[in-house]
Amino acid sequence: MIGILLPVYGLVRSVDEIEPFYTHIFHGQPPGEERLKDAIWRYRQLGTCDPLASVTLRQAEALERRIGALLLDEVRVYVGCKHTPPFVPDAVEQMIRDGVRRVATLPVTPLYTRSGTGAYRKQVRDALQRIGVDLPVVDIEGWWAEPRFVDLLGRRLRSAVNWLSEDGRSDYVVLFTAHSQPGLPQANERFCTEFEALAASVARAAGGCPWRLAYRSGGPAPQVWLGPDVREVIEAEAAAGRKAVVVCELMSMTENVEVLYDAGIDCWETATRHGMEFARTEFLNDAYEFMDMLSRYAARRIRCKDDAYGTAGVLGT
Fold first, then answer.
1. Fold matches, 2-141+287-309 and 144-280
2. Which residue in 110, 221, 264, 295 has a CA-CA distance of 20 to 30 Å to 149?
């Protein structure tokens, strides 16, 4: 049986779980009253349950069915979290109890980061080592360059641009966004390279458009974070006389409260305050074409590793 880890920042399934979620983020320190009040307000403003939790669980179900059918093998997808149960080590332990013989990691975010994708992978290997089980691990990566994925984002970008008025379309800019990372560009070389390459590919897939890179959700000083901040870029474009801005997120493929505010509501408010039209691209979430693309890519990578190990066709034994 093949066990696939789907890593995620956290699954908040009730308003009551917001406080322990933030307490874990702050290394066991409860959030202050005002911070907690603001966090709860943001979640409630969505008017729905936390989409990161509900969509991630649907993604896991869809990927499990599709990848299993493609590999003609038993596949189970396990969600492992950084800041809420089930934590990544817990998911790995469950894999072992279920009899998993091969492990794969499949982040539903296209861009590699040391603190995100890299940290999840290390947790998986550390958990296996602690348990004392030697299982091969396949890291499914690089799908940011998959043509079908680029086309999915390109079509959504075209839809967002078309939503602008005729006047707005006459002078707009696309801001490709990603969660900022701590440190200078030299310390995040792989991330920066993939981010820029994906942005260029999506812009071409959308038919060509003026674009810039921008970052969101950076932490406070004195820690250095990658920039420029997306709100500062919107202000600069407005000062230059630009009529409209379209934000296209390239890191979070799944809606969550952070990206909905930092690449959505906050950007809309900044643009509106400066007299600019604003639009953003839709998230892929668990759209059929996204799940199908990711499943096929994952199946190919697992098959490739099977051939390398000499185990193709016998994984179920």
1. yes
2. 264
- Do 198 and 150 contact (CB within 8 A), yes or no? yes
What are the E-state strand segments in 34-148? 75-81, 102-105, 137-139
**Residue 36 and residue 33: Cα distance in Å, rounded?**
5
Strand bridging mode 137-139 / 75-81: unpaired
- Residue 174 predicted with pLDDT over 80: yes
Q: What Rg, from alpha-carbon coordinates, does the chain have?
A: 20
* Helix, strand, coil share (%) of the chain residues, nearest 5: 55, 15, 30
Q: Which CATH architecture has domain 144-280?
A: 3-Layer(aba) Sandwich (3.40)
Domain 2-141+287-309 bears CATH identifier 3.90.1150.10: no
Does the pLDDT at position 57 exceed 70? yes
* Whether pLDDT at 48 is above 70: yes
What's the pTM?
0.93
User: Regarding predicted confidence, which is higher, 9 or 317?
Assistant: 9
Domain ranges of the chain: 2-141+287-309, 144-280
